[in-house]
Amino acid sequence: MPSETLWEIAKAEVEKRSSGSEGDGLEIGEKSVFFIGSKNGGKTTIILRCLDRDEPPKPTLALEYTYGRRAKGHNIPKDIAHFWELGGGTSLLDLISIPITSDTLRTFSIVLVLDLSKPNDLWPTMENLLQATKSHVDKMIMKLGKTNSKAASEMRQKIRSNMQKDHPDRELVDPFLIPLVIIGSKYDIFQDFDSEKRKVICKTLRFVAHYYGASLMFTSKSEALLLKIRGVINQLAFGIDKSKSICVDQNKPLFITAGLDSLSQIGSPPVPDNDIGKLHAHSPMELWKKVYERVFPPKSINMLKDIKDPARDPQYAESEVDEMRIQKDQELEQYKRSSSKSWKQIEFDS
């Protein structure tokens, strides 16, 4: 019998640990964090920093898994954190369903990493990933509710508790049913943008994060910012106390914990009052999208589509292999042409 691969062993271990405890399918001390976001946006760098691994980040192939441990005390089992990372930007959305199941849902968190240095790609990347993830999470919540309605209800109540009961926006938002953190990466490049452009990006991300009940923060290669991010990820992975600090100044790296912002503080979309009436939108989210895309129009659909064939992805380029691939492609085309001529000759002769 062939031996199991490392991937199969890891996946089986996650499923066993998630469903192996008594009663409610939850084992204390184990959590999962799923990183999604912009291609080459810095997801791997953040994971390595959180795990104290001093190694250069490598391109993520499809869906990757690693884990970390944290000691709680003498003779006490270590907490375990499972880290999943989706590569390819928005090109591999189907893989979101692999780590997020009805069994693992209660211990899951999502971290969306967005590249601030590429504002024209930011909205489509964010929209596609959040919609795909939210749709799947909602399906898993419904599935969980059929077998454990109490657990599903507790999840809904817990995520709602991030916002105070008397918060004026409580009925105006639609939070993710699992913890969500939005990280804007490459702040060192973003901070040199024109102030009006920074204002549009900051206000838009604040609205989206607040609407989905997410925490929002910016980071870069700065050690101080990376330490802040590490603290947030440790809170998701190991249950460390949540930070209550807040920074909403667009001239500084944003840091806003879920539930601490408000629509009144964010303000209206950054567009002249006489122009808002010209924007036809069916929801606040659609209005913010239209305003954002007026300033940062998305690239053409063809350019937005990530390369689904890894063999043609520039980040995996290898000259010898690529040369052989080109040669084989040419041979295939030549074969197709010769076959076509042969069939035409047969038809003509008949």
TrEMBL record:
Q: What is this protein called?
A: Cytoplasmic dynein 2 light intermediate chain 1
Can the keyword Cytoplasm be found in this entry's annotation? yes
Question: What GO molecular-function term can you cite, just one?
Answer: dynein heavy chain binding
Concerning its family, UniProt says: Belongs to the dynein light intermediate chain family.
Organism encoding this protein: Neomonachus schauinslandi (Hawaiian monk seal)
Q: Which InterPro entries match?
A: DYNC2LI1, Dynein_light_int_chain, P-loop_NTPase
**Pfam families xref list:** DLIC
One Gene Ontology cellular component term attached to this UniProt record is: centrosome
Subcellular locations according to the entry: Cytoplasm, Cytoskeleton, Cilium axoneme; Cytoplasm, Cytoskeleton, Cilium basal body; Cytoplasm, Cytoskeleton, Microtubule organizing center, Centrosome
Keyword Cytoplasm tagged: yes
